[in-house]
Design brief:
The chain is of the alpha+beta class. The protein is built from 6 helices and 6 strands, in the order αββββββααααα. The strands form 2 sheets. It has a 3-stranded antiparallel β-sheet, with no helix packed on it. It has a 3-stranded antiparallel β-sheet with strand order 4-5-6, with no helix packed on it.
Length: about 210
């Protein structure tokens, strides 16, 4: 009697059952981040819907279930009721969101901002799409140090070292050729560097160290 077919079938069933039993996790289902939950309000409206029947700032009840594809296993009940504030994700304060950064905006431009891609933090529940854009202040640095810039301006400013350091190559060369603007340009640059008006050519912030 050929038992190979049934034996292989039994082996597959045992393997699948063992894999299911080995699904262990120390993460509580209630602690799963909101991006891995499917939640609806008490009237059945999905939490990520844009039309919600609640008053801004009210505490609302939501029924959530853990996304089986994102979280195969977790500790506790996979379906539970929790609370959330009636506010759209784009209305969250900056402390509750993670936003992308820009390395191309000019930090010294008036009202320097850029349009960032933002998502709420995992433990924050909110209404509407969890991915949105928001104006953020332009505050980035490429590593230029104010102290280094000032020291170069003070000691080697006549040779354009301060401007070369900050990426102002053309004016650095002009400064060398004019012997630091016959000394006047050197003094002016020391003042500009000390007061923060001479900054990197790429628009990044100087580090105050």
């Amino acid at each position: 009697v050929n038992m190979r077919g049934p034996s292989l079938l039994l082996l597959c069933l045992v393997t699948v059952a063992a894999g299911q039993n080995n699904c262990t996790s120390s993460e509580e289902c209630r602690d799963v981040g909101h991006s891995r939950l499917d939640c609806v309000t008490v009237d059945g409206t999905p939490l990520n819907a844009t039309d919600q029947l609640c008053n801004f700032g009210d505490v609302i009840s939501v029924n959530c279930s853990v996304d089986g594809d994102a979280v195969p296993c977790c500790e506790g009940d996979r379906n539970f009721t929790t609370t959330a504030l009636c506010r759209f994700c784009y209305q969250l304060p900056d402390t509750d969101v993670n936003c992308s950064e820009s390395t191309t905006c000019d930090s010294y431009a008036p009202r320097a901002t850029f349009l960032a891609d933002c998502t709420p933090k995992e433990n924050v529940g909110c209404l509407g799409p969890r991915t949105f854009q928001k104006n953020q202040p332009c505050r980035w640095t490429s590593g230029y140090q104010w102290s280094t810039s000032f020291l170069l301006s003070l000691t080697l400013g006549g040779f354009g070292a301060d401007r070369f350091y900050l990426g102002h190559i053309a004016t650095g060369i002009a400064k060398i050729l004019t012997f630091g603007g016959f000394g006047i340009w050197t003094v002016v640059d020391v003042i500009l560097t000390a007061t923060g008006f001479l900054h990197p050519v790429d628009g990044s912030l100087l580090l105050n160290t």
